[in-house]
Structure to design on (168 residues):
């Protein structure tokens, strides 16, 4: 089962830095994320989603490969690649994996301009090691689907700077 965590930060930099740290933790097999998105709100009040994976680009690359392969069968690989890239880009743009974009935009509309939030959807994590690596990030936990005990440990680390023992 997947877990959702939403953390708000007073600036944009911290959310991007935490996302980078979570990516490192995933490479070390300490967390398995399905989606991680930074949401920012500019001075004009516009909410922007910064997806970790560009689905349009991924779809275009995959589509061009399959289009070229099919095009080779019908003796026109360039046309096949072009059509495949276009179809792949369109399907990537229309795809939404992980946290729902509409939910993130709606959730973030009341943020202070210049603020950001990190939406993390993960399957599993080695909690004590992950929390230890996140102790330098200060923010406010807005929403989780964690158990009460797990949420309290996260709050101790993120909101209170790791005061107390977050791993007990």
């Amino acid at each position: 089962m997947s877990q959702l965590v939403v953390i708000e930060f007073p600036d944009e930099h911290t959310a991007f830095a935490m996302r980078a740290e979570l990516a490192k933790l995933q490479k070390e097999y300490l967390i398995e994320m399905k989606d991680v998105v930074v949401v920012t709100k500019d001075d004009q009040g516009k909410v922007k989603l910064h997806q970790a994976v560009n689905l349009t680009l991924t779809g275009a690359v995959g589509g061009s490969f399959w289009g070229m392969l099919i095009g080779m069968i019908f003796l026109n690989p360039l046309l096949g690649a072009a059509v495949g890239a276009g179809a792949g880009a369109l399907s990537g743009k229309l795809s939404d994996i992980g946290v729902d974009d509409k939910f993130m935009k709606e959730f973030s509309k009341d943020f202070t301009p210049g603020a950001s939030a990190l939406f993390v959807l993960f399957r599993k994590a080695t909690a004590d090691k992950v929390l230890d690596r996140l102790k330098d990030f200060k923010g406010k936990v807005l929403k989780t689907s964690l158990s009460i005990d797990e949420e309290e440990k996260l709050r101790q680390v993120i909101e209170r700077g790791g005061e107390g023992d977050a791993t007990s």
User: Anything to note?
Assistant: The chain has six helices and five strands. Residues 54-61, 89-96, 164-168 have pLDDT under 50 and may be disordered. The beta strands are 3-9, 31-41, 47-51, 116-125, 140-144. The first helix runs from residue 13 to 27.
